[in-house]
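Blinded run. Sample ID left blank on purpose so nobody reads anything into the name before looking at the predicted structure. Input follows.
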Amino acid sequence: MSAARWRPPIDNPAGRDTAAALARYYDLDLADERADVDMYLALARSTDGPILELAAGSGRIAVPLAAAGHQVTGVDIDPQMLERARTAWAAAQPAAGGGSLDLIEGDITGLDLGRRFGLVILALNSLLLLPDRPAQLAALRTMAAHLDKGGRAVVDVWLPEPEDLVLYDGRLVLDWLRHEGATGEWVSKATSARYESATQTARVTTIFDAWRNGGQVKRTVRDDLICFVGYHELLDLWERAGFSPDTVAGDCEMTPFSAGTDRLVLFGRRVDG
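Blinded prediction complete.
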């Protein structure tokens, strides 16, 4: 999940080191996630005007959009994630076809950039990292406030099935073991989560262990509160934020949403647009 609001302590060197490590592991975690990037590139080709990505994180989406020649603004609350985005953009920029990337540190629930965009994106579960319904609604209203008339907004969230949440009972689950080329380390990711049905939230602890030459180098821990939102709840928030849903898809290939689909990709335009 993208670091939409979660922010590690960075007022001391140890905190900055932890934040930097978590930003690296975020990229390692999503190294094979490509379907949504291709979707946003296709949307951008049919977009008039600049593009805004909220909770842009390390630039996984914003950098390819800018490299494809678009004028992109990315906003995130985590400075270490934004630093990785700047590094990625510096590497991609020489081959970019006239695109640009402006990266801004800020809270997406209270953002006012004073301008509007042809495409506004809140990608890959970032909405779920906001702690409650008022914060989620505020983020969606930020999207609407920054969307140009005739422009399009997109939000993408996971809709867990009951059987998915059975695992959210506090058990520790090993998600993967991967090699990190930049450091030469092997990194494992394990998660432990507890779901509260009354609030539709889960407390999730993610543990990254780095290994080199058979010995453990470092353990880095991240804690998140995930606030799940159902299909009908999200549509209600979407409309309250000022959008009319024009497409409701079940994946990034634009398959129509149906019962049992575990992903919701919602497209909309401003009601007054």
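Unblinding after everyone has recorded impressions. The helical segments are 13-29, 35-45, 62-67, 79-92, 133-145, 162-165, 231-240.
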